[in-house]
Each structure stands twice: as structure tokens, then as C-alpha cells.
Amino acid sequence: MPDLPPLLTIVLEETGQLDRESAMYRRLLAARLRLESQFAILHVEKPLTTAGISQLCEEIESKYVIFMRTSHLLSANYVSTIFEYLRTRTVYLAEPVVYTGAIAKNVAGTKIDEAYHYSRDTDVFGVAFNTRRLADALEALGDVDRSAIYISYRMYWSIAKVKPLNTGFSMASDTKAAIGLHITGEASRLAPVIPTSAKEVRLHLLRYVALFLRGMRGQKATSISLSHLRELIRGFDLIDLLALVEPLQPFEAAWIRWLDDPAANKQFYKQLSDKDAYLVFRDKADSEENALPLYELLFNEEILTIERCYLARNLRSGHARPGSYNFYNRPIGPSSTILFFDRPLQADDNAEHLYEYFTKNHPEFNQAYFALNPKSPDWERLESKGFKLIPIFTKEFYEKFLVSDLVVSSQIYSIRYRGKSFANSRFVYLQHGIQLNDMSDWVLSKYFDVFVATGRVEADYMSRLAPVETLNSGLPRYQSLARNAHGQQHLLFMPTWRFNLHQSSSEHFAQSTYFRAIDKLLSDPALLEFLEDTDRVMHVKLHPNVEKRAGQFRFSERVVQSDLSYREAIRSAEMVLTDYSSAALDAAFIGTPIVYYHWDAADFFRDQPYESRLDYVDDGLGPVFSEHAEVVEHIIQEGFADTDPKFIQRRERFFEGVDPARINEKIVERMLSL
């Protein structure tokens, strides 16, 4: 009797080395041991495309096929649950509960509502397709991008509803929400316009359109036409569901409103104190007077220009509508409630430093609160300093937010409560770092009344995006930052993170260029000998995403994983070495030499959700090295101790406009005038 084909094939897309020690891969192998000949694993070394998937469907003999990557996450019962369901019936599609972050402990308790369907990733991964039916559909859907196959397949076979099985699958990353989708140039439409009233499918399509538009801001050109986008938005009544887009993708929500009604080319975006900010969409060459150009994008053969302009509030329709509360009505004064916060579990950033200055110098404002998680190690410290603390993201916090006249934070969160959000209320964004890279797509997606910049270079960049909102004052924490030249000094190494290493197993991480470059430096014999001979210690501040892997690095008596705060580590540093971390600019601000080590300069920005803006060689505030031997030689020759006029001039230009003694004062003046 000939061998029967397996019931299920799992196709693993892994363009690099297959991570055979990942939790996901080990679970697949364990499942294959139990299911033996009924379950196959196929490793594909090329990125999956629509044409590639179509070809695979012709070659795979199994009745069902699932696509995934080893970076994804699975519930322990994922394969067994899917398999048991498939072998008892014939279906077109079977899927788990799909997550972007951690899989819920109680998958069955996950609320499958509109918010779930909108946020659910719509790529091909994690669901079981009927192989034959997928091949049939792709004969008609061959001109859509791979990332649209799932939605298009459901439209093609009129699959209105899918009840997820009681198991979980996670993409283990939500970077798409930040950077959007970049679809292939071969795709000529996002999805087929096959009529459906199914809200579930329409919600999936709405998210897909929003992510496509977000990706277009970076991709700049596509074969998709504006007329096709309008056909999708109108044909599926996506405008009726737009409230789901607004909170996290307000730029794209305004874009979709214009696509639905091209005559309304000025789309209200953000209320400000004395005027409003608008996005202006034009598919013709003319431009709005005094408008700031943001994007010029090519849709098939049609150019779309997106601009920003500011108009008087009384020009906005309905601005004085009865029944709508204006959160700008009351001027900021001593009776105002003002909310400050940094990260939920960590203070000691710009909001804490500004709050301390503000409450000390303006005691008449007795309703200024600092929000923090009570479990934070900073809670007791701030409480002893007399901070008025409230638990962040609790009912008390949201009630304070509702009555507040101003929110001041080093972080941007999408806070909405009873009709109030940063779209219609005052918000001062202090930042955590400095915009070294091209973060314009991210910046333009956020609401703020004031954006605190640090120096001429950043302020010039920000003024091209938000000139009314930009304030060149410097970061509050800089006002009290000073070098500790009298205590025990050390060398400091602060490498940043690489997004493509999320979910890597220990073995896979150890084989990465990132790990090998850092570990080679930490254990370099010449460096260790230099540190011993000069009685120095190199402190290493690993990125929070790497701290759990600290045990894999070869630390020693002379190269230690630092337990100092970032602030103290920088204050006491004789020299700061980094790859791309903007935290090194804190050191540059107080005159500490900084050095860049770019071991992966050719590939770094390829895997990051942003692009380079600063030319480190021509504009960096310290020397740049790309080779291990060069950076070690620079350290052991104490090149960092030599004062180079070139870097002094660059530092002065970079921080131009910042008065270290008036940073907090300038910010407070601006925020009280809103």
C-alpha cells in the first residue's frame, strides 16, 4: 500500500539560519514525533511571495498548509488542537486566536470583539489553509501581495466568520503598527472588490488599508492606484468603522477620510491653543499657501502631495458646537490640575526633573501630580521627596486626566477617556532622547502641543515637521547633569538593540553579528590588559531587551555589567562608547568624549523601524570606527583623552540654542502660556 500524504504541512519561512533551538521549532518537532507521517515540516529559505505560495500549493501533497517563522510563538497545544480539528472534517480555513504580543494564559477568555478583529494581524501566518482551495483562489488573486492573501482568500470563498480554535499563535511583534506594510511592486491591488457585509472581514481590510498607507509614507511609490483605494473604502463602507483607526493611526484616519471624500482636502488633525493643525491632501500640482510639504508619493502614475498647515480655530466647522466641551477653554493657572509622568515603572527622566523644578519654583500650583506605578522602585524615593503621586493608568489617573488642563510627559501614550484625548487637549512632550534618526513618520503620527528639542540640529529637523509646536530648550534632565570628575571614573559602553533579534533562542542570539561584536570587544585581551595596567573598569549598560541574555557575555573583573543608573553611569564616565544609542548625547552635553563603534553599518538601518538622518562620520560628536581592531586601538592609546577641536565645534553647533541654566524655565514659560 503506497504511503499516504500527510494531512498537514507547516512551511517555515527562514531566510537566514534556521533557529532550531527556538521554543516554536522545538514545539513543532515534539508535535511531529507524536503525529509522525501525518505532519510534515518544510523549510523555505526565500521570503514567501504570492507567486511562491502559489507554487508551493501545487507541490505540497498535504490537504492543509500553515505558514510560519521560527520567531513566532505558539501555545503548547497549538499543533494538536489544529490537527484534531482538521482530521475530523473538511474545511476551507482553520485558525487559532492570533496575537501580536504575549499569548494569553487563558486563550479561551480572549474577547473576540471588533477591537480584536481590527488589531488581528492579517498576514498568512498561523492559520491552516485548505491547500487545494488556496491554490484555486490564488489563480484569481495572483496580483495581490502575500500579506493580503488571508483577507482575499476569505473574500474569494465568502468566509464571513471564523470561530478561532482554543489555542494561541503570536506574531511576537507589533512593529507593523509602527512602520506599516511595504508591499511588493508586483501587487496591482490590495484586495479584490468582492462585495461582503461581513464586519469581521471589513475590519481586517480596514486595518490592512491603514497599515498600507502607513507603509507608503516610507515606501514612497506603489503600483496601487488611488482609485483602487477609493473603491475599497467606499465599496466596503470602511468609513463607518473609522473610529477604530483614530486612536493609534490618526494620520491614516485623516487620509482615509480624504480618500472617501476628495473634495475635503483639508483634514482637521490637532487642536492647539490658538489655532488648529490640518493635513492637506492634493493629487494635483497646486499647493496650499503657507503649507509645509510633508510627503510626495507616487500611486501608480499619480502623485499625491501631503502637507501640514495651521488655521484659525473659528474656521473649523463645529468648533463651537453646543454639547461639545472645549478642553482649552480654561487658561492654565494655580487652580489647574497638571499631570506629569515618565515610564509607568521607571521615573528619573525628564518629567521627574521638570516636576521637581516646577513644584519648587511654582508652589502656588498645588494640583500638580506625578503618575507612576506603585510597584516601581522609584515610588518610595519620590514619595520621600514630597511628590504628589497617583497610580498611573488607574481610575484615579483617568479621572485626573479628564479634569487636567495640561499633561507633561517624556513618553507618548494614546490616552483617551470620556471624549478627551491629546487630539483635543494640551500635551507637552518632553521626549526621552533626541531625534538622531529620521523618525518623521512616527512624529507626524503623534499629537502634542509642545515638542521639546535639544539644540539647533534637532530643532531645525523638527521645525520642518511641526514648527508651531517645536521648542528648542533642551531636555530637563540636562539642567542638573554634570560630570563627576572627583569620584571613581570608568569607561562606559552602551550598545543599543537590534529589532531582528526578538524571540531568538540563546543559540541563535550567540551566533548573531550583534552578540559576537559586543562579546569580542568585552573579552579582547589587549583591552583587558589596558584596563588592568591603568586600573580602569569598563561599565556596560546593556539595552533592556538584552539584559535577560547578560549571562551569555564574557564579563570579568575589569569589564562589568553596570548596576548604576544611566544618569550616574554617564556622570562618572571618562569616555562613552556606543553604536547608535542617543543616550550617549547626555555625555556629549556635559563634555564627556564619545566614540562610535559601527560594526554593522551596512545592515543596521535595514532591520530598524527608522532610517538614518545623521551622517555620523561628518556630523557625529566623536570618531566613528567600523572595525574591532580600530576601536580597541583608540581606547588603549587613550585617543579619547585628546581634545579634538572638530568635535568641540560639532558639539557646540549640535546643542546651539540650549542654555543649561534655563532649560526648565523655558519649558515652564511655554507650557504655562498654552
**Percent helix:** 25-40%
What is the CA-based Rg, rounded?
A: 27 Å
Low-confidence stretches: none
**Euclidean distance between termini CA atoms:** 82 Å
Major β-sheet annotation: 7 strands, parallel
**What would the principal axes of the Cα set say about the shape?**
globular
Number of helices: 25
Number of strands: 28
- Let me know the average pLDDT: 90
Strand order of the largest sheet: 16-15-14-17-18-20-21
Q: By helix and strand content, what is the structural category?
A: alpha/beta
How much beta, percentage-wise?
Answer: 15-25%
How would you characterize the overall build of this protein?
Helices cover 32% and strands 17% of the residues. It contains 25 helices and 28 strands. Strand 20 (450-453), helix 15 and strand 21 form a beta-alpha-beta unit. It is globular and about 80 Å long. The chain is α/β, with parallel strands linked by helices. The strands form 6 sheets. The protein has a 7-stranded parallel beta sheet with strand order 16-15-14-17-18-20-21, sandwiched between helices.
